[in-house]
Amino acid sequence: MIIVFCFWADYAADALRDWPVQLRAAAATPPSRSPPAVGFVIRCARFRTSLWDGVEGSMEPSEAKTDKAIDIYRDTWVRFLGYANEVGEAFRALVPVSLVWGSYAVATAYVTADAVDKGKKAALAHGENPGKTTRVAAAVVDTFVWQALASVMIPGFTINRVCAGSLYLLGKTTKWPLPVRKWTTTAIGLSTIPFIITPIDRSVDFLLDSSLRKLYNEEEKHK
């Protein structure tokens, strides 16, 4: 499952990076040579292309460069796959445990795909320079460890404890029916997710900067 997801994610990344070029190619096709429905799509493509060119023209060179260098795993909807296990934990009281573990599989697949992608980018960036293998390994390990902690382990544990504590307190302080308490617990868990993302991300950054990343910096100093 993880291997299939990695191949799919790489294909999707290429498609997202190339869509402006494909859009301009469609816009260059004369509508008169196409069926009415296709002609309408082409006119829409021309309109979207004009908007895209206007946006690019209004950008500073650095902004346009940044826009083209979209990271599919960090800057698109794919990033939300990393939160799948938090959602699974929020629904733990309502769904079979197998579905909760399935959500962890999705999040782990995302983490693995992101680590592989960062390794590939590090390999391209360093070319055939000395120390390439070390830098690629550092990129893969750093990404995998960071994502595993910030996207899977810590937030999953946090939502699990929030939901468990909420269900316990609701049972002690209310006389609500069990289904109502479970749905309330799920709502609490889901509403907690947006508030824990940034603190956990910063905490993991601090943890890695204070430990693992010092090893990478020391290796660079000796080269």
Automatic annotation (TrEMBL):
Pfam families: MTP18. GO terms for cellular component: mitochondrion. Transmembrane segments: none annotated. GO terms for biological process: mitochondrial fission. InterPro entries: Mitochondrial_18_kDa_protein. Belongs to the MTFP1 family. This is Mitochondrial fission process protein 1. It comes from Menidia menidia (Atlantic silverside).
